[in-house]
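Notes from the 1:1 (GR / supervisor)

We went over the backlog. Supervisor wanted to see one worked example end to end before approving the batch request, so GR pasted a single chain during the call. The sequence is below; no edits were made to it. Supervisor asked that the structure be written out right there so they could see what the output format looks like.
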Amino acid sequence: MENDTFKLRPTDEFIELIKLLKLKQIAQSGGHAKMIVEEGLVKVNGTQEFRKRNKLRPGDVVEMEEIRISIIK
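Structure output shown during the call:
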């Protein structure tokens, strides 16, 4: 499994799940990101996640296929 990190900007408390998928180029567009989440292909902290706008905060871990992204401050 590939481990990666996403560092929040100092002014941000969180990032929405679909925005993270777009920024990390896991999804090609916002629509693609929504589809990935709706289909249940993403886990957040080990639990299948269906909320597209789930707020990811430092310490959260997002998993999809062979990718694991840790959110850091």
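Supervisor's comment: The radius of gyration is 11 Å.
Batch request approved.
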